Amino acid sequence: VQNQLFNFIGGNTGVWQVIKMETVVGAPLAQVERVEIIEGELTSVWQDFVWSLSGVTSYGRYVTRAEKDLLASRQADLNRPEATCAALIPISKSEIWWNLAQDERRAILETKSEHIKIGLEYLPAIARRLHHCRELDGEFDFLTWFEFAPEHSEAFEELVVRLHKSEEWKYVVREIDIRLVRADQ
Ligand code: HEM
Fold first, then answer.
1. Positive or negative, the Cα torsion across 19, 129, 163, 166?
2. Mutate to test the pocket of ligand 1, among 85, 94, 128, 171 (most ligand atoms within 8 A of CB)
3. In this predicted model, which residue has the larger pLDDT, 175 or 47?
4. Which residue in 24, 38, 93, 146 is deepest, having the highest Cβ count within 10 Å?
């Protein structure tokens, strides 16, 4: 669904327990114990937090029809009971990236980096949701969220390593890798 607002609230409460927080590149983000995900506008109840990152789901910028259909046929939903592991990876790209034209960005993201082709290999094990926040004037350009079962943790690790080696990642100027486990069961 497009245009849905999600807030990731870092602090001492929330169903997701932080097991690791690592600054890959750029300025760090304060360490927190828990992350809560709240959909929609934040109410005043949420005042006691360390950081709050918001992003919206949007339309696909780079996918071709064939890729869009392939993704739809393979992807799993979030909130699967077995998917007790998650990763929240906020990312920003450089001004050079944002000044490129659409065809140049697509060429880097897919033709050279095979982001979508590589990502598809990890479906349906890894469920995902991409949030955009550049237009919201947030600290990051994207909030990427992934959920998977513990037995797919290594596969997720491998996926991140493969993407880090790609041409696309030369444009990533800030990245925080936050790993979590569900703590409400
Ligand atoms: C699980 C497998 C994955 C799949 C299937 C996947 C697929 C995609 C697709 C289709 C897009 C383009 C959306 C559009 O057309 O606008 C995208 C964008 C993006 N993905 Fe992934 N991805 C995966 C994993 C990852 C991982 C692990 C990361 C971070 C480490 C990541 C970070 C991003 C970012 C930051 C964007 C936005 C790029 C931009 O608009 O410049 N993805 N992904």
1. negative
2. 128
3. 175
4. 146
